[in-house]
Amino acid sequence: MPVNRPLREPNAPATQQQISFMHKLNEKGIITNDELAYFHSQPTRLTATTLISSHENDPGFDQARQELHLERSTSQPAPGTPDKETQQVTFAHTKIPAAFVTPHTVTRNDGTTQQRAYVHLPQGVEINGLDVSGYSFDIPLNPRQQQQLLNKETINISLREDRPITIWKGSKENGDYISHTLNDPWGLVTGIKNGRENYLNNRTQASDRAVTHTHEAGSVPSLGDAAREARNSAAELGGGEENRDRPVAER
């Protein structure tokens, strides 16, 4: 018979393992979006333990746990890797319409360039009760994401769990610049997911107008075309395309 042991540091932040497991349960439809949102409003070990325990007897619970264990075991580095590199890197995944992604190019100190993008948060996105509608954050663009952007597809976004995300809005020149550092990427992912559902449910017609773009016959769209379209689309749909000042720490 299992022994109930007192939870150590119940008010401490939930562990990455707990957060990953809760999102795996949500992915399987075991934990609801409302329960996940409640957790992110009180992201403690006690909240995570209570929510996870309440679903232990649900169908699919053990399978979700096994899948997460398999994902972690297959991503373990080879033996002998230095301690700093043995820390498992996991990602929080989400999607966002191309209308809210504006590509740009960064030139490094050595003269090389990198394709990146501003991701603008649409109206209705909340993180732990904080309304972040119109805020932006910056990500690198891999070749697949660049192609998704050119094709006006939904963009797949992956955020490292072990790295904080800085979101901002406004302009330093105008004196209305505001920024926040988010230590839990899953909170941002959950907010985007809920905002995306709201966007798809309530802004279908506006979305169709915003993402429709006709190129001249025989022309090939470029990232510059996508950037101009995204700026117009984000402005129409309530994104933060006006956010031009990246945080100094990220430059």
Rg calculated over all Cα atoms = 20 Å
Total beta strands: 9
- Approximate shape: globular
Task: Report on the biggest sheet.
Answer: 3 strands, antiparallel
Structural class call reads: alpha+beta
Low-confidence stretches: 1-5, 82-86, 213-218
A few lines on this structure:
This protein is of the alpha+beta class and 251 residues long. The chain has helices at residues 16-27, 33-41, 45-53, 61-74, 83-86, 143-150, 185-202, 204-211, 223-237; strands spanning 91-96, 101-107, 113-120, 126-127, 130-131, 136-140, 155-160, 165-169, 178-182.
Topology readout:
Blueprint: H1 16-27, H2 33-41, H3 45-53, H4 61-74, H5 83-86, E1 91-96, E2 101-107, E3 113-120, E4 126-127, E5 130-131, E6 136-140, H6 143-150, E7 155-160, E8 165-169, E9 178-182, H7 185-202, H8 204-211, H9 223-237
Antiparallel strand pairs: 1-7, 2-3, 3-6, 4-5, 8-9
Helix pairs in contact: 1-3, 1-4, 2-7, 8-9
List keywords for this structure.
251 residues; globular; alpha+beta; 9 helices
What does this structure look like?
The chain is built from 9 helices and 9 strands. The protein has helices at residues 16-27, 33-41, 45-53, 61-74, 83-86, 143-150, 185-202, 204-211, 223-237, and strands at residues 91-96, 101-107, 113-120, 126-127, 130-131, 136-140, 155-160, 165-169, 178-182. Helix 1 packs parallel to helix 3, helix 1 (16-27) crosses helix 4 (61-74) and helix 2 (33-41) packs across helix 7 (185-202). It is of the alpha+beta class and 251 residues long. A hairpin with an 8-residue loop joins strand 8 and strand 9 (178-182). The longest helix is centred in the last third of the chain and has 18 residues, at 185-202. A 3-stranded antiparallel β-sheet has the order 2-3-6.
